Amino acid sequence: MAQAKINAKANEGRFCRSSSMADRSSRLLESLDQLELRVEALREAATAVEQEKEILLEMIHSIQNSQDMRQISDGEREELNLTANRLMGRTLTVEVSVETIRNPQQQESLKHATRIIDEVVNKFLDDLGNAKSHLMSLYSACSSEVPPGPVDQKFQSIVIGCALEDQKKIKRRLETLLRNIENSDKAIKLLEHSKGAGSKTLQQNAESKFN
């Protein structure tokens, strides 16, 4: 009888220890789950800062190369460029890096996709129109919506092999390149228009002198 009581107490002790360990493990797991949410929120916030930095640099660069900057006095342009350079310098002091975890296949896919985009960029000066069309087909390959034009199927399969974060970055880079081309087209058209208007004015002035 006494032995049975001793065994019962021993079993009770083991049960209490087992229950306590389970509770402790559950609490630890819950804490880690909460920390995981905070880690993901941190990565999202850092990525947002990265994107904001890219946007600010693009906007400053766009202002410096805008048609309006060409149509003001040299003194005003110099002063505005000094301000723009100061803002760009301050923006570049912000260093944010969000590393993407990749397996070897994803790493190779990213290198391949980057190489394709770089090759198109290098052809900008030779044939801007064709480069723009090529970029559009690459961008369509990254879009989840029905694309308005042709899709580069080979590039699409490469991008699918990239990590999800890299897919977003590739799409963002293509969007930036297309915006830059669009702004360049507008600047060229405005410049040609102003040249055409200037030539027409000169011609009218010359004709009025002879009349």
UniProtKB/TrEMBL annotation:
One of its GO terms (molecular function) is heat shock protein binding. GO terms for biological process: negative regulation of protein ubiquitination; positive regulation of proteasomal protein catabolic process; positive regulation of protein processing; protein stabilization. The keyword Acetylation applies. Residues 25-59, 164-194 form a coiled coil. It comes from the Eukaryota. Co-chaperone for HSP70 and HSC70 chaperone proteins. Acts as a nucleotide-exchange factor (NEF) promoting the release of ADP from the HSP70 and HSC70 proteins thereby triggering client/substrate protein release. Binds to the ATPase domain of HSP/HSC70 chaperones. May interact with NWD1. Interacts with HSPA1A (via NBD), HSPA1B (via NBD) and HSPA8. May interact with DNJC9; the interaction seems to be histone-dependent. This is BAG family molecular chaperone regulator 2.
